[in-house]
UniProtKB/TrEMBL annotation:
This is Secreted protein. The chain crosses the membrane at residues 12-34, 54-77. The lineage of its organism: Bacteria, Bacillati, Actinomycetota, Actinomycetes, Kitasatosporales. It comes from Streptomyces yunnanensis. Keywords: Membrane, Transmembrane, Transmembrane helix.
Length: 79
């Protein structure tokens, strides 16, 4: 039995980079939709909704995550 160590290392590297990137992108989405206090001195019990730009960026991040997952499923099923 012969193991192609270079190919195994390449698969590991690409998987690691894509996983870290996808988790980071999802984290950006969560931060974008999280509620923040109204002002610096305001108590945490008075949250406000995130700004429209932050919400749009978060939705774009979630859409990219969904697209990456769908592409991964396509690669597995199509083979």
């Amino acid at each position: 039995m012969h193991i192609d160590w270079a190919a195994l290392g390449q698969v590991f590297g690409v998987s690691l980079v894509v996983t870290v990137g996808l988790v980071g992108l999802f984290t950006v989405g969560i931060v974008g939709v999280s509620r923040k206090p109204a002002t610096e001195g305001a108590p945490a019990a008075t949250p406000t909704a995130p700004a429209a730009g932050a919400r749009a960026g978060a939705l774009a991040a979630f859409a990219l995550c969904a697209a990456a997952v769908a592409y991964g499923i396509y690669l597995i099923v199509a083979a």
